[in-house]
Amino acid sequence: MQRIVLLQILNEIPESPAENALHLPPEATNDSIVRTLDIHQERKLVEAFAFLASITNDPRKVIAVAIEEHQTGERLVVRIAANHGGLVTVQGGLQGMADILMRVARTG
Questions:
Q1: Which residue has the higher pLDDT, 35 or 66?
Q2: Which value, in Å, is the radius of gyration of the alpha carbons in the chain?
Q3: For residue 70, what is the DSSP state?
Q4: Are β-strands 63-69 and 76-82 bridged in parallel, bridged antiparallel, or unpaired?
Q5: I want to staple 84 with a disulfide (CB 3.0 to 4.6 A). Which of 2, 8, 41, 61 is the partner?
Q6: Please, are residues 55 and 63 in contact by the beta-carbon 8 Å criterion?
Q7: d(CA 78, CA 67)
Q8: Mean pLDDT, the chain, as a whole number?
Q9: pLDDT of residue 23
């Protein structure tokens, strides 16, 4: 615990976020792999989920989101991680939004 306090004293202002380059994978040669989203659409969707999942402006409380597309292209798995205790709140909020979107899609 003392080291954490010392690090905070030495560097109170967190460093600016870094931009990570998006490396496009080589074209898939396996015809059995079906992609519903291209890499750019997937990135935009992840960014949108991360925005919707953010529950605080505290930069020390981070939400991470990842999307996995099933090989058949029939479904997406959204994975969420948090470095604080708000994961249940985030999951409930996103599930509520998903339920609304499913209802609209079925009646639309």
A1: 66
A2: 18
A3: -
A4: antiparallel
A5: 61
A6: yes
A7: 5
A8: 79
A9: 65
**How many Å apart are CA 83 and CA 101, to the nearest integer?**
28
User: Is residue 15 a contact partner of residue 37, using CB atoms and an 8 Å limit?
Assistant: no
d(CA 35, CA 50): 22
What is the rounded (10 degree) CA torsion for 30, 33, 37, 43?
Answer: -70
Can you tell me which residue has the tokens 């994975």? Answer: 79
Residue type for 44, please? K
- Helix, strand, coil: what percent of the chain each, to 5? 40, 15, 45
Tokens of 41: 């659409």
The tens digit of pLDDT for each residue in 26-59 reads 655 555 456 778 888 888 989 998 888 888 888 8
